[in-house]
Design a protein that fits this description.
Elements (H helix, E strand, L loop, with lengths): L34 E3 L5 E3 L19 E7 L2 E8 L9 E5 L10 H10 L4 E6 L7 E2 L8 H19 L7 E6 L1 H11 L7 E7 L3 H7 L3 H7 L3 E2 L2 H10 L6 H7 L4 E3 L5 E3 L10 H5 L2 H7 L3 E6 L7 H8 L4 E4 L7 H4 L1 H15 L10 H6 L5
Parallel strand pairs: 5-6, 5-8, 8-9, 9-13, 13-14
Antiparallel strand pairs: 1-2, 3-4, 4-6, 4-7, 10-12, 11-12
Length: about 375
């Protein structure tokens, strides 16, 4: 039976917050069948799932193309706008949170390109999310696997597009995605190519505290909708996403249509429970140890834990707070988020620095010093 009522936090999987919003009632159909986990990590009703069921979304208004990249036992799905010249123009890589999808960064991507027209944007559907599919019976949602997935996607995109030079990188992660990009930066996976990394509205302390309420949240959110539009409306009315334009683009990939004509969640978040504490445990320490410039964007200063407060006072990272945003900062305020990230990148991009000539070179040229 569908669960269609109850208090709801501000995201599909609102780790790191613990906010609640007024109950939103959604029409439900008692004939909808009980769900089970499929081999691709989606929720599959006991009735047949329509394999071609994919809501129409105007993703091409925000990205130039979508790619399917083949890895080991997995087929990654990503949205891409290539850098104009990979040898000098950056690639911004975006990783969404649990239960979300690559189009969570659609409006953000468009705003970044307004400010850096030559920059590239790569936004990933994580395993078990969006249109990324795996041949394994169960998805491995461990942080090492998700981080390796992201690194693999960056490498495969480079190969598929036949870029002669590897572009400089700025990686951006929201919620769970923040933990993923933090691990990537701490391990120095891309060395000096990684100019900086930014995490959006996730802090270890508040995230670990919020995990206590996740089971109740998942049990109380609507289990299905009678249309894609109804799901979009639920996201905005519940203030999960406060920007209707973003909700309209980011919600459809979260859903699959059942044989009964209902729309249910694509990702089975209960299947990720085993990994919840691993995702965020030690994240503050890892963030501060990341081997690149660091940006932390929050919807409120109350999310800072002690370790990050000390690090911020010591100037170890840039902090930007958006008190008017909900958990999905990049969706609620895409212009401000893009402006912050672009300026952060420009400030830390050493490729544009012009260094004075070495004294030894001047002497070798016969010039006086």
């Amino acid at each position: 039976m569908n669960q269609d009522g109850g208090a709801k936090p501000e995201s599909q999987f609102d780790v790191g917050l613990g906010h609640t919003t007024p109950a939103i009632e959604e029409d439900h159909d008692s004939s909808s069948s009980v769900s089970s986990v499929s081999s691709t990590g989606t929720i599959v009703p006991s009735g047949s799932l329509q394999p071609s069921s994919r809501p129409q979304v105007a993703w091409h208004d925000y990205f130039d193309q979508e790619l399917h990249l083949s890895g080991h036992d997995i087929r990654y799905h990503v949205y891409l706008t290539s850098p104009k010249d990979p040898s000098k123009d950056p690639l911004f890589v975006c990783h969404h949170g649990a239960g979300s999808c690559g189009l969570s960064f659609a409006l953000f991507a468009k705003e970044v390109r307004k400010r850096l027209p030559a920059a590239g944007i790569l936004s990933v559907d994580a395993r078990g999310h969006g249109y990324t599919t795996s041949s394994k019976l169960e998805n491995d949602f461990s942080l090492p696997t998700l981080s390796e997935d992201l690194a693999q996607v960056i490498r495969l995109t480079h190969e598929q597009r036949n870029w002669k030079d590897a572009p400089s990188l700025c990686v951006v992660g929201h919620s769970l995605g923040g933990a993923v990009v933090t691990r990537l930066a701490k391990n120095a996976t891309f060395g000096a190519r990684l100019v900086g990394f930014a995490i959006i509205d996730v802090v270890e302390g508040s995230a670990m505290e919020a995990l206590k309420s996740m089971q109740a949240y998942l049990a109380n959110r609507p289990a299905s909708f009678n249309s894609v539009d109804a799901a979009v409306e639920w996201h905005t009315r519940s203030r999960t996403v406060r920007n209707p334009a973003s909700a309209a683009i980011s919600t459809p990939p979260l859903l699959v249509e059942t044989s009964e004509g209902r729309w249910t969640w694509r990702t089975d978040l209960t299947a990720t429970k085993l990994y919840w504490e691993q995702w965020f445990g030690g994240m503050s320490k890892n963030f501060l140890a990341g081997k690149a410039a660091k940006l932390l964007m929050l919807a409120g200063t109350d999310r800072l834990d002690k370790e990050l407060m000390i690090g911020q006072m010591q100037g170890k990272f840039q902090l930007q707070v958006f008190p008017e945003a909900g958990h999905f900062v990049q969706e609620d305020l895409p212009e401000q988020t893009a402006e912050t990230v672009v300026e952060f990148f420009k400030r830390n991009d050493r490729s544009t620095l012009v260094l004075p000539p070495k004294v030894s070179d001047l002497i070798a040229q016969g010039k006086k010093v």
